Amino acid sequence: MPATVVIGAQWGDEGKGKVVDLLAERSDVVARYQGGNNAGHTIVTGDEVYKLHLIPSGILYPGTTCVIGNGTVIDPGVLRAEIDGLDERGVDISGLRISANAHLIMPYHITLDGTSEMTLGQFSIGTTGRGIGPCYEDKAARVGIRVQDLFDESILVRKLEVALEFKNAIMTRIYDLEPMDAGAIAAEILAHAERLRPFVVDTGLLIADALEGDGHVLFEGAQGTMLDIDHGTYPFVTSSNPIAGAACTGLGVGPTRIDSVLGVSKAYTTRVGEGPFPTELGGDEGRQMQERGHEFGTTTGRQRRCGWIDLVALRYAARLSGMTQLALTKLDVLSGFERLRLCVGYRRRSGKVIDEFPLHQSTFHAAQPVYEDLPGWDEDIAGVTTLDELPAAARAYVDRIHQSVGVPITLIGTGQGRHEVIDQIEI
Ligand code: GDP
Ligand code: IMO
Ligand code: MG
Predict the structure, then answer these.
(1) Which among 105, 26, 33, 113 is positioned nearest to 73, based on CA atoms?
(2) Average confidence score pLDDT of the chain
């Protein structure tokens, strides 16, 4: 069975949810490999709008198996609410599977996410406040709580006591907060255990079996390349690896099993939270993008920062994930701009222009974009489904991106709806 990884090629919110939803129709398994409910994926089908945070974006197709892999972090209350919410709306959730090895976000992770942001003050990251970083910290420190611990109360309480010994010292002595109680936390999360139990399986084995079969497997990344903890704009990143390679560790799949990598990028750039963003636009053009693209975060409702497409960062993303195809979303949002700018290089403080992503953080922070300009178009392209219907200027814009990134553009987004897309995807 062929396997494709779908990744965010920018700073998240590229439209991965919509693309995965579209491809789920042609897939048997869709599996999330990292991140948690910091993600927010909006899918629009007819009049219905779904906002998914943890459950893979393939869930809307009955019969698709949707896996939440070992590399993810799960807030049990949030997952339960998401399952119940979909169930109440009549979505068939019987295909959901959850890894027993995924780590659980505990109440103290959420508290510590908030206190750490407060302590950082002007250096804060602008996290989603969902406890993601502290949960991954505990995973690495080997004091994490995992899904399987939900099914053994005495082990759960013992592990919570061990974790809380240190956490309570931090919360009471450094932050002057009330200590948390292992028994109370256990009771709170055990209330979800029976609801989740039927979905918990050996997901690594499930995927291995699927790969032996005839259909197609999709690995769904959350966040985006520039938020990758190793390769992104550290420290303004998330605490996991959204790049394609992480699908292997986050699901228990060997690298030889991956056939293709589909990067998803907007036709411009957005970012939520703090951190450098060379092509960011203030003023009217940024406002126009923000308004036309409805650029508000799916998870936190924060306004997304907007700017021109950054081809240096996009080429870097293509390299890091071995991208074989590119989906360019939200091209419709760019109608009505007189001129479109594409960032083809960065000017360093010294004046030197570079066209590779810089190694040093301070170089990136100081980078001034070097632009190439192309004419815009006025025609409304909302809902267009064939390349022939695009104005010549829009085709030229897409061709320039293809030429620069060196990866074929096999999907172009022309609206929010499931079928508002020029789809030439090869999976
Ligand atoms: P994700 O986190 O990568 O799944 O992206 P989000 O769902 O957070 O944000 C992308 C937003 O853009 C959502 O509201 C989508 O419905 C919307 N969207 C996706 N593709 C297109 C497109 O081609 N055109 C327009 N206008 N909106 C789109
Ligand atoms: P999707 O999957 C956009 C950003 C946060 C913050 C940084 C760290 O919808 O693309 P965290 O809570 O992860 O510790 O926050 O990462 N961030 C996202 N930005 N889309 C996301 O997910 C994001 N998930 C985290 O805004 O800057
Ligand atoms: Mg999102």
Answers:
(1) 105
(2) 96
DSSP code of residue 342: E
Nearest CA to ligand 1 atom 6: 13
The bound ligand whose nearest atom lies closest to the alpha carbon of 295 is 1
Q: Which CATH architecture has domain 104-194?
A: Orthogonal Bundle (1.10)
Q: For residue 11, is it left (φ>0), alpha (ψ between -120 and 50) or beta?
A: alpha
Report how far ligand 1's centroid is from the alpha carbon of 18 (Å): 6
Q: What is the distance between the alpha carbons of residues 312 and 404, in angstroms, rounded to a whole number?
A: 9
The domain limits of the chain are 3-98+200-260, 104-194, 265-422
Q: To which H or E segment does residue 248 belong?
A: helix 246-251
| Residue nearest to ligand 2 atom 27, measured at CA | 273
User: HSE (CB half, 13 Å, CA atoms) of 334?
Assistant: 29
Ligand 2 pocket, Cβ-based, cut-off 6 angstroms: 8, 11-13, 38-41, 125-128, 130, 132-133, 222-224, 227, 238-239, 272-273, 298
Domain 265-422 has CATH 3.90.170.10: yes
Is the CB–ligand 1 distance for residue 415 below 6 Å? Answer: yes
- The fold adopted by the segment(s) 3-98+200-260 is Adenylosuccinate Synthetase; Chain A, domain 1 (3.40.440)
Ligand 2 atom nearest to 240, measured from its CA: 13
**How do residues 192-220 score in pLDDT, each as one tens digit?**
999 999 999 999 999 999 999 988 999 99
Ligand 1 centroid distance, CA of 10 (Å): 13
Grouping H, G, I as helix, E, B as strand and the rest as coil, residue 3 is strand
